[in-house]
Amino acid sequence: MNGAEAVRSTSVFLGVDLGWSTGATGLAAVDETGRLTASARVKTDDEIAEWIAAQPGQVVVAAVDAPLIVPNETGQRVPERLIGQAFGGFGASAHTSNHTRFPGGDTRAMRLAQRFGWAVDPGTPTGGNVGVCIEVYPHPALVGLLELPYRLDYKKGNDQGRAPGFRLFVQHLESIPELALAGSPRWRQLKHVLASPRPGDLTRVEDELDAIVCAHLAWLWHRRRSALKIYGNVEVGYIVAPPPPLHRPQQPERRGEAASVPAPGRFERVVHGRPTGYSAGANEQRWKADVRSAFSGCTLPAGCRVHVDLEFLLGQDQRGRNEPDLDNLIKAAIDALDGVLGVRTGTGLRAEADDVRVDRITASKRHAGGNEDPGAHVTVAEL
């Protein structure tokens, strides 16, 4: 065997924290021992392909954090419901994906798998001539593998509020012996950035940290298959994650600006679409359909009082005269929560949520960043 053949015979396990449609993607690779060998953050599919081609070995498993197989027109996929049942109590439910978000089921993850010739059926044996691409989700993976009492809170809020969650995330990743992070030059660079982050650094580093989790899952899928479970199947879509936890969830206590405290009944969803205000127009109806789709199957107990938290991410074209008022955005979004709150009577043919139950509203709006899609982060919680 010559030197080039020896290099290509090395096994590579990829983690891909993929932007759902466009935007930034975190990448990570571990070797046959599970050791982190590289990580990066890129944007385009061509940059993803270039980075993967530069890795010294053959891809055995690629674990992608993004919808891969999306056959359903509306509502949640089967694996999203199953993940919610197993990990929802730990705050690690899956985001909703359907043809509203991916017309015709055309996903970026599937296009990449086809580009690289990877098999997408989780039943495909690993270690052969064909790499295997699986869909994964870091939040339930961390809860299950590390027996966390609740999901790590490092994604939402300002940098000061996210910092404690990042510190815990780093500690937990360093506790995984196979990753051997102490010996990784790139890991030392990431920790240096996290020690004194500038604006935007946490979001950029987050993609790589999530990709490292995905790479570890790719390695486990080949080396320790029993540590993971398939939720769903290749026909209805699937997510690979640890088995349902045997330990009970413990909601985090509020300490300063650290983790947020879930209410007894709580649903947190990401709504993908163009936020639109109360206007009785077609755009409002499309936006409401996006909100209803995201909260499909979510219902709070009858009669409970409710807190709604909304963060709207506007499109770049929603500026000047096209920028919607925050109060109108709130009205349209809450009206679409009729599945969660129940339907308010006396509104004629117009379906509106029973928003009389809403005693507290917190809301903000901003324009989506370069690596973000327009939409909203919405949390509906029992007071």
From TrEMBL:
SUPFAM superfamilies assigned: Holliday junction resolvase RusA (SSF103084)
GO molecular function: magnesium ion binding
GO biological process, one term: DNA recombination
Region (Disordered): 245-264, 364-383
Highest taxon, organism lineage: Bacteria
Family annotation (Gene3D superfamilies): Holliday junction resolvase RusA (3.30.1330.70)
Pfam family name, one: DUF429
Name of this protein: Putative RNase H-like nuclease
Organism annotation: Blastococcus colisei
Species classification: Bacteria, Bacillati, Actinomycetota, Actinomycetes, Geodermatophilales
